[in-house]
């Protein structure tokens, strides 16, 4: 399927003249990071568009990113559609087989969708082609978070485009996911910083990595967001005490990372993909 104006097609589907067909998704994929969650939602946006359905997120019984109304990513990102969540009681489970026969209102959980990867992975090339446009449909930050990011840059004395983002990632959970293998060590990230860079925005959820970065005495102006950090992963529904903070930190770092002049990112992280997709720079992946 090829569109001359992908963004326009996606927006036309999400903002129809008449709201009648829906794909409702609820996020119960506990432990998944914001990057992987975003990728799953982009796949669902593609399937919704194929089937002329409006994709909407509905609250999960266990919200992962926001513990106040609307209990979804729309706490941080602008509305996905002009359509409201339908009041229909005839809501059917979404099926890949015979999608046209699913009824007007269908729903799917992210965990169920994730488990059925053999049914949707074939769309990977198409989703890759539309990912930049899909990002602009699903992940447009609300103004209050844009202003928050602007204030962070002021506090850092950074101008948009004048700094590079370096994302450092390590945790017991990530090592377990990689079969015990660590991501690249700090010095490997530093070795890839271009010689003309003078300012660095560090991104990491690991306090030990941030300590190493700040104490490294590197010849850069350095800055980072002021949020709690933990050696173990606490975001994405792993620990309800940090649900709201994780959501705010995620959207803020997403905005800041994309405002920089470049980024150095570990390949083995969906956050790296989320940060760089559709960004106005080429990331350096290690």
Could you describe the 3D structure shown?
With 286 residues, the protein is of the alpha/beta class. Helices cover 38% and strands 12% of the residues. The chain contains 11 helices and 9 strands. The strands form 2 sheets. It has a 5-stranded parallel β-sheet with strand order 7-6-5-8-9, sandwiched between helices. Strands 2-1-4-3 form a 4-stranded parallel β-sheet. Strand 1, helix 2 and strand 2 form a beta-alpha-beta unit. Helix 1 packs across helix 5. The protein is globular and about 60 Å long. The mean pLDDT is 91.
Helix and strand sequence: HEHEEEHHHHEHHEHEHEHE
Structural class: alpha/beta
Name the overall outline.
globular
| Number of H- or I-type helical stretches | 11
Q: What would you report as the Rg, rounded to the nearest angstrom?
A: 19 Å
Report the mean per-residue pLDDT as an integer. 91
Main β-sheet, spatial strand arrangement: 7-6-5-8-9
Q: Sheet with the most strands?
A: 5 strands, parallel
* N/C terminus separation: 32 Å
User: Considering DSSP H and I runs of 4 or more, what fraction of the residues is helical?
Assistant: 25-40%
User: Uncertain spans, ≥5 residues at pLDDT below 50?
Assistant: none
Percent of residues in β-strands: 5-15%
Tally of extended strands? 9
């Amino acid at each position: 399927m090829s569109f001359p104006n992908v963004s326009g097609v996606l927006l036309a589907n999400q903002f129809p003249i008449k709201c009648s067909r829906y794909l409702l998704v609820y996020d119960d994929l506990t432990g998944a990071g914001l990057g992987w969650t975003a990728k799953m939602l982009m796949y669902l946006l593609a399937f919704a568009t194929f089937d002329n359905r409006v994709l909407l997120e509905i609250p999960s019984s266990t919200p992962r990113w926001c513990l106040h109304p609307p209990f979804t990513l729309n706490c941080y990102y602008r509305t996905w559609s002009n359509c409201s969540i339908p009041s229909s009681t005839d809501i059917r489970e979404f099926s890949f087989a015979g999608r046209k026969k699913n009824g007007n209102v269908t729903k799917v959980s992210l965990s169920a969708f994730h488990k059925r990867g053999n049914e949707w992975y074939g769309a990977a090339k198409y989703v890759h082609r539309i990912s930049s446009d899909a990002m602009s449909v699903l992940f447009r930050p609300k103004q209050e978070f844009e202003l928050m990011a602007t204030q962070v840059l002021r506090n850092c004395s950074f101008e948009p485009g004048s700094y590079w983002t370096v994302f450092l990632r390590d945790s017991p959970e990530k090592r377990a996911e990689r079969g015990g293998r660590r991501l690249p060590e700090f010095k490997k990230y530093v070795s890839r910083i271009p010689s003309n860079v003078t300012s660095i925005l560090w991104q990491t959820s690991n306090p030990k990595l941030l300590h190493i970065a700040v104490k490294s005495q590197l010849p850069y102006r350095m800055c980072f967001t002021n949020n709690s950090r933990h050696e173990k992963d606490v975001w994405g529904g792993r620990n309800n005490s940090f649900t709201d903070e994780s959501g705010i930190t995620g959207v803020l770092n997403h905005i800041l990372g994309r405002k920089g002049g470049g980024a150095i990112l570990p390949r083995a992280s969906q956050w790296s993909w989320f940060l760089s997709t559709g960004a106005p720079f080429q990331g350096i992946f290690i």
